[in-house]
Structure formats: C-alpha cells, structure tokens
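Narrative of accomplishments. A recurring question from our advisory board has been how the design workflow behaves on a single, concrete structure rather than in aggregate. To address it, we present the structure tokens for one chain from the evaluation set, followed by the sequence designed for it. No filtering or post-editing was applied between the two.
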C-alpha cells in the first residue's frame, strides 16, 4: 500500500504548495509513482504542475460525480500525476458539513489510489477547517513547512495541538512525519534563531535539509513546472532534491 502524506500549515505563504509539488516531483524522478492531490480551492498546486482546473477535479471525485481514473491528470514529469482543484471545492465543506462521517470523504475518495501509487501527497488550504481535517484523516503522516519567522513559532504549537486532537479522535495512526524550514535567509539573525529553537525543542522531528529563499522557486509555478524541470541546477532545486530523499528515507 502506498504512503500518504499531507502538507499542513494554517499560515499562508510558507511554501506549502511549492514543497508539495517539488518533493513529489523529486520522488517521481527517483522512480516512484506519485499522485499529487490539490485540496485547496485556490488550485495553486494544479497551476504549479501545469494541469487543467477543468472538470473533473477533486470536487467531482469526492462528490461521486466522476471515477478515480477520470480524475487523474498527467504532469510534465514522468511518474507524477495529479488531481486538480478549482473554486468548486470551496462549496464542498458547506455541502458535506451536515453529512455523517464528514471528516472522511477525502479518505474514501483516495482509497482506490493507495495500491496504485507509491506516494500520495495532499496539499491542504492554509487553515485548520474541514478540508484540512479531511486531509489529516486521510493521511499516514503530516509534513509541516515552516517559515523562519517569529509568528511561525506560535502557529506551530496550535497546529500540533490540532494534529494531536485528530490522533485521539479521528486517525490514531497519524504521525508527525517531520518539520522543515522554507524561505531561509542565512543573513538574518532571526532565521538562525528560529531554526535553533525549533531544532532544540523538536529534535529529530526536524528535517536536516533547509530550503533557502530562492527566486527560481518563485518563478517555476508561472511556467507550470516543478523546479526540477524549470532550473534543476539552482539552489532551491538541489535543496528540494535532498529533502525528497529525507522524506523517502523516513517514509
């Protein structure tokens, strides 16, 4: 059975979608079959790998309006597939909030893929709402991207508390797969202090690889390409290649 990771951070702009795309791409380059699941109504992950937001999307899949096979779209990277998202997903939480087992509709939708793909990576919205709750219920492991700034320290405490609640009541097999730093600027003392504090407290939970602030990482999504296809020699690409190796070793 394939492994399922969910990328979660209630704060926006921390590199969550960028990380989901590029870790998935490098795992695919390592010869694994990878499925990216865009579970954010903004659909940024879909744009970032050059797949259409036209129907069918993840909304049609969870609503039972399409088959698993029809929902999958191919990306420019061999072995890397995706299920896209559109603004329609924003209505899913409203429509399903009154239903029984409302936390499990994503888990049910992704079940047919668990024996097809080696890795399933879920990109959740920047919130701790029902969609993210579904991501946590569907996954085996949580990956937490963290920007090197003061407020990130406060936010991660709230996030891990939410994960703990999910472990107790919804998904007891869920584990913290790891925390990793993004947009790191070694010139600032604050970034260095945040890294030191988090590593001191969380120890082995923190990945060794740190993703630097890198303009090429920001440019790649506009071309609909992962960084491995856009500029494989840049610092951001080399960092994500190393981080993907760590994810596979831990997974």
């Amino acid at each position: 059975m394939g492994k399922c990771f969910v990328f979660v951070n209630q704060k926006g702009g921390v590199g969550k979608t960028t990380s989901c795309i590029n870790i998935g791409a490098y795992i695919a380059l390592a010869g694994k079959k990878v499925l990216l699941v865009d579970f954010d109504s903004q659909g940024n992950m879909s744009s970032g790998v050059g797949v259409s937001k036209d129907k069918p999307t993840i909304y049609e899949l969870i609503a039972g309006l399409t088959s698993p096979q029809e929902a999958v779209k191919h990306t420019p990277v061999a072995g890397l597939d995706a299920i896209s998202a559109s603004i329609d997903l924003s209505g899913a939480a409203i429509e399903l909030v009154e239903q029984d087992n409302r936390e499990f509709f994503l888990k049910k939708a992704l079940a047919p893929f668990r024996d097809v793909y080696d890795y399933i990576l879920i990109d959740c919205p920047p919130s701790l709402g029902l969609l993210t709750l579904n991501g946590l219920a569907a996954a085996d492991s949580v990956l937490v991207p963290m920007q090197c700034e003061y407020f990130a320290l406060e936010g991660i405490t709230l996030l891990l508390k939410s994960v703990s609640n999910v472990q107790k009541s919804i998904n007891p097999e869920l584990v913290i797969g790891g925390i990793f730093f993004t947009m790191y600027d070694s010139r600032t003392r604050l970034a260095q202090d945040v890294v030191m504090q988090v590593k001191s407290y969380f120890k082995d939970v923190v990945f060794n690889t740190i993703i630097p602030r890198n303009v090429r990482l920001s440019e790649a999504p506009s071309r609909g390409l992962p960084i491995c296809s856009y500029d494989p020699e840049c610092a951001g690409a080399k960092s994500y290649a190393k981080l993907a190796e760590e994810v596979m070793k831990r997974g």
